Amino acid sequence: MTDHEGHAKMLLEGAANERKLKLKSSLKYQKQKVQNKMSKIAKLDENSVKVQEQAARVERIAQQFVDSIIAIIEAKKMEFFDDVKNKVKESLEHLGMKRREIEEQVKMHEVTIEQIETLLKRSTSAQIMQPNEFLDKIFQEKGDQEDADDRDGGGLSEFDFVKNEKLFDHVSDEQIGSLLFLTETKPQQSSAEGKGISEATVGLEAQITVITRNAKREQCHEERDYVGVEIRNRQGHDCTTKVQVQDNKDGTYKISYVAKETGTCQASVKVNGEHVRGSPFEVQVKPRQFRPVLSLEQEGSSAGKLRSPWGVAVNERNEIALTDAGNCRVQIFSSNGTHLKSFGRRGDKQGEFFAPYGIAFHNDNIIVTDCGNHRVQLLSGQGEFLGQFGGKGSLDYQLKSPHGLSIDSDGNIIVADLGNKLIKIFSNSGQFLHKIGTEGSLTKPIHCIQRDNFLIVSDNGDHCIKVFDKEGNFLYRFGKKGDGDGEFNEPRCLSVNKAGHLMVCDKENHRVQVFHLSGIFITKFETNNSKARDLNCPISTAVLDDGRIVVSDLENHRIQILE
């Protein structure tokens, strides 16, 4: 081989190696491009799955929304059907009464016919012509005209269905919703902070702050973002009330909620349906401890002083109204204990009282059970007499020693008619509507409140709580006489706190007990011992906007506010 040939071969090898390097580089580049493309395909596949999941979620939410609308319409339909049934019942009762009246008249006419026939058969012409009151009455009746009611079958009251065309047109014209195209906010980059993601107290507001961020983890705000929270116990049941989300319009959201049971819960904080970073969070919910923060305890008869306070109520302005039973008057205080006004005195005239017990606000008016006068009085917020109903007796519209009262969701007045062993419900104008306990299911009803579709009664005679449906059907009871948790000794008035729990004044056990509406015991506060601040025969409770509890402390002649 010549030098020239060797040199040429070296040049060829060098060029080939150089090309191989370029090929290897190109191969690596192509593989990288394939990998990138495959990653994009995987991302597209992931996004395709996400789109399908979003579609399923959107359809699920839309279905739930439609189902809720249908449920509302079904409920309104059943309510209308109930109105029809009541109207039919009323009409049939009226027609039945008219029928019985006419049957009695028929019997009287038949007796008259028999008497006339006997007269015609046995009387001479001279006897028939003699003066006769019976004949005069018969001739007079012959000239009388029948009432229109008698001719048409007893005054038939006809009724028909009038369609709500406006509702139908509105439903026809409106869409059930619209598609919301989500924003650049990235839930996985968004965060949640605040005590509410780790701890809470039953009945008190807990807070969470959510910060929405984009892909670069920059705080961002989009009007179309949806921020929410679900807090559930180990069984998967919702364990909160009053969940609220406030959009601060700067990429931060304030979430507040009130826990209603103790234990470990899971808080799922989501943005646009997806968990934020770190969600779900484990939340430890502690029981609520109560302590007195304010006491109105000057015994006496001058304005602002108390003697055996019984009922308490709170209005929208956080004013506290109470029945100062020993002084036979009503007093009003601010939530910080300032005396605002007093009205009433002992007597039986309008605006006077003899043992005022139950009290409730209704709009701007005050309603009071005047136990010793066996009536309920309606007063303005300034104490002016507006009306009354009741009066001693056992008829439906009458009362005998009425004790507690409350207002239901329809604005009607629920009265514990202790002497008649009944709960009676009146319209806000005092018209009797219906009663509960007619089968002897109550012995000494002290107070009754409505919660959802239930009527809850404290029965002092049986030392328990009894629960009925709105139609008055007995459902269940809980509690018995004793001093253990969940037991009672003369239970008095009821109320529901911010956590949706039932508070029962357990008078002779000198405490207030707290329960789930199902009757499961939760906690208790303030027993009677040597401490001056403890309760001595608590009668009634009410709840201020901030969750503080107002308690009438009968034997200590004071009102306590617990925090």
Describe the structure.
Helix content is about 25%, strand content about 35%. By secondary structure, it is α+β, with helices and mostly antiparallel strands. Among the domains are: about 190-285, Sandwich (Immunoglobulin-like), CATH 2.60.40.10; about 290-560, Neuraminidase (6 Propeller). Strands 2, 4, 7, 8 and 9 form a 5-stranded mixed β-sheet that branches. The chain has a 4-stranded antiparallel β-sheet with strand order 1-3-6-5, with no helix packed on it. Strand 29 (about 510-515) and strand 30 (about 520-525) form a beta hairpin. The longest helix has about 120 residues, at about 5-120. The chain is elongated. The mean pLDDT is about 85.
Compact summary:
It contains 5 helices and 33 strands.
Secondary-structure map:
Blueprint: H1 3-122, H2 125-129, H3 133-143, H4 148-151, H5 165-173, E1 191-193, E2 199-201, E3 205-211, E4 227-232, E5 240-247, E6 252-259, E7 263-271, E8 274-275, E9 281-286, E10 292-296, E11 309-314, E12 320-324, E13 329-333, E14 339-343, E15 356-362, E16 365-370, E17 375-380, E18 385-390, E19 402-407, E20 413-417, E21 422-426, E22 432-436, E23 445-451, E24 454-459, E25 464-469, E26 474-478, E27 491-496, E28 502-506, E29 511-515, E30 521-525, E31 538-543, E32 549-553, E33 558-562
Parallel strand pairs: 2-9
Antiparallel strand pairs: 1-3, 3-6, 4-7, 5-6, 7-8, 7-9, 10-33, 11-12, 12-13, 13-14, 15-16, 16-17, 17-18, 19-20, 20-21, 21-22, 23-24, 24-25, 25-26, 27-28, 28-29, 29-30, 31-32, 32-33
